[in-house]
Write a structure and sequence with these properties.
alpha/beta, six-stranded mixed sheet, 14 helices, 43% helix, elongated, binds 6-O-phosphono-beta-D-fructofuranose
């Protein structure tokens, strides 16, 4: 059996550890022996809290630099032992940001090829959200949120001073991690397991996604579309039932749109999961019906018959005057969905509480549906879609949680 080192490269909060987790799970599923060697975990266990201060990363901090090099050396040796003992793939999960650090890897790990994988993500908004999320991790618990953010930003600043993108390395691939797109590949064809690795790099990865629609809203009860109404009594009961159903589930991330009905649906669930992080993404706000917002379908047919007929004729391509259509939602929802996946990383379970049209678009990202059938996918308020998706499988079930 062949052997391979994978060395990740990238600034903090660019999705390296999520990728490492996917490589582990994906390659193990293919029957390979894989192990992760994470410098951050080793640092935290050996050096404790002091090593989380930004000054630990200042390039001019000589003693800290030596400590960091020592940690890298330990992981490098353990990775080598792992391959020598029959392991197939050793994944070095660290920033490996400088050419000099990578040269050390190349000089010391000569018993198997090294595939460098650089994680790139320059989406400013997403970075901000990632930093916010990292600042909430136990590592920064002694800081307070604002100070933790500041500290993490300073750490990134130090890394940026040393950052040299991959260029001279013999085998490498550079990946844009928001869309899982390969930007550049060098001499990868002969790398062991590269076909599987490449597939993992470009696949969306969802352990357990619970896709829910908000409970019944005031507007739903009146058959009106759009708006920002709150839940009815029935809707609140649905939200309670949902919270009870999900009580035993591990749900580190709960995403909602910015609409009242979605947030009110999430409220009891969040109460039952005080450790969960709630992230509101306006990308998940319901389709805007423009001039038709707040109208019922009967009113649209009566007052704007041409619009009504045009939508009936081609619901997917139809765009409301001054509003949106399924066709224009695709980008916005796709962007929100990628953000949610990126931010929740290797989380065991995530919840998205969205809306009828939004959830249809999310479902269409996973399951092939002809465009014209997407606007008719059944999206109930008492059932949710459970989705599992990796490079090897995509599963979908519709689960009822209340009457
Ligand atoms: O009726 C509820 C609702 O979420 C509206 O706000 C939205 O306009 C509509 O569903 C989308 O569904 P359809 O595309 O079938 O009209």
């Amino acid at each position: 059996m062949s052997h391979l080192y994978i060395a990740l490269v990238g600034l903090p909060a660019r999705g390296k550890s999520f990728l490492a987790a996917r490589l582990l799970e994906g390659l193990e599923a293919d029957g390979l022996k894989v192990r992760l060697f994470n410098n951050g975990d080793l640092r935290r266990s050996r050096l404790g809290a002091a090593s989380s201060l930004p000054e630990f990363y200042a390039p001019e901090n000589e003693s800290a630099r030596r400590q960091r090099e020592e940690l890298a050396r330990i992981n490098m040796e353990q990775a080598r032992d792992f391959l020598a003992g029959g392991g197939n793939v050793a994944v070095l999960d660290a920033a490996n940001i400088s050419r000099q650090r990578r040269r050390v890897l190349e000089e010391n790990l000569t018993d198997a090829p090294i595939l460098f994988i650089e994680c790139i993500n320059n989406d400013a908004e997403l970075l901000e959200a990632s930093i916010e999320r990292k600042a909430g991790l136990p590592e920064f618990s002694g800081f307070g949120l604002a100070a933790a953010k500041e500290s993490f930003v300073r750490r990134i600043g130090y890394y940026e001073r040393l950052y040299a993108p991959l260029r001279e390395e013999r085998h490498f691939v550079r990946v844009e991690t928001l869309h899982n797109r390969i930007l550049e590949e060098r001499d990868c064809a002969g790398i062991p397991f590269y076909i599987q690795i490449r597939d993992i790099l470009v696949s969306d990865w969802v352990r357990h996604l619970y896709l829910l629609r908000h409970g019944q809203s005031e507007y739903n009860a009146q058959n009106r579309i759009g708006g920002d109404s709150g839940l009815t009594g029935k809707g609140r009961k649905q939200a309670e039932a949902l919270a009870a159903h999900f009580q035993p589930f591990d749900l580190p991330y709960i995403f909602t749109s910015s609409r009242k009905r979605a947030k009110e649906t999430a409220a009891p669930l969040l109460q039952g999961h005080p450790g969960s992080i709630h992230i509101m993404l306006p990308e998940f706000d319901e389709i805007s019906a423009g001039e038709c917002e707040g109208m019922s379908y009967t009113e649209i047919r009566r007052n704007l018959p041409k619009e009504y007929a045009a939508r009936q004729a081609d619901k997917y391509a139809y765009v409301y005057p001054g509003g949106e259509g399924y066709i224009t939602l695709k980008d916005r929802v796709g962007k929100g969905f990628r953000k949610a996946l990126f931010l929740s990383g290797a989380a065991p379970g995530i919840v998205i509480i969205g809306h009828q049209a939004i959830n249809r678009m999310i479902l269409s990202l996973f399951f092939f549906r002809r465009n014209e059938s997407v606007p008719y996918i059944y999206v109930p308020q008492n059932e949710y879609f459970h989705i599992v998706s990796t490079h090897r499988q995509t599963l979908l079930e519709l689960v009822r949680f209340t009457e």
